[in-house]
Amino acid sequence: MADAQHAHQQLQPGIQSFFTRQPKVLVPPTIPTPGHVIVYAMESTSSRDSGIADTLNTPAISDKLANDLLTKLEKSIGNLLKPLPAVTEADEIAIFAHNIPTDMDRDDAWEVWLDPLLSHFLGFGRSIAIISTSLRDGDKGLTVMARYLRDFVTQYRIDGTLLEGKVLRLIEAIELQS
Questions:
Q1: Per-position DSSP letters for 87-155, written without gaps between them
Q2: Across all residues in the chain, what is the average pLDDT?
């Protein structure tokens, strides 16, 4: 009887075979994925009216360079003198209105997601003047992009040296609009 029970157990799959790790499926950043929209309430007296960016309500980032860069980006957005065109779903900047992926390794967050996303928006070899003309504002525009970057960098602890070149190009493009 013990032999029959032992033979039966050998034929049954082990319990660990039911708990195998599934491979991660990453969606390329060039294809917007539908999902929940992150909504941020903004006061009617925006920083654009006062000329000072509201950095008191932004989450702190442990990397000083990254925090300084994103604060400078937010201030340059707040210093815009004229309104930007309203964003449409077809505008490249609208991709930043989507949810931040949460199932990603910290090491992959920059290389697989944020760097290609920023590179696509800023373009390879695209002039600052052309980047400036693609800037939009509204519910999926520049302000939402800055919030997305801050939230992403906070969540994945992205090093400021990785962001520096791209964020400075974006700030330069924003300053052309002022």
A1: P-TTSGGGGGGSPPP-SS-HHHIIIIIIHHHHHHHH-SS--HHHHHHT--BSTTSHHHHHHHHHHHHHH
A2: 78
**CA end-to-end span of the chain:** 87
Of 99-113, 131-145, 160-174, the range with the highest mean pLDDT is 160-174
Query: Cα separations (Å) of 119 from 20, 25, 28?
Result: 35, 21, 13
Q: Is the dihedral of CA 133, 139, 142, 148 positive or negative?
A: negative
CB–CB of 170/66 below 8 Å? no
Nearest to 176 by CA among 120, 128, 124: 128
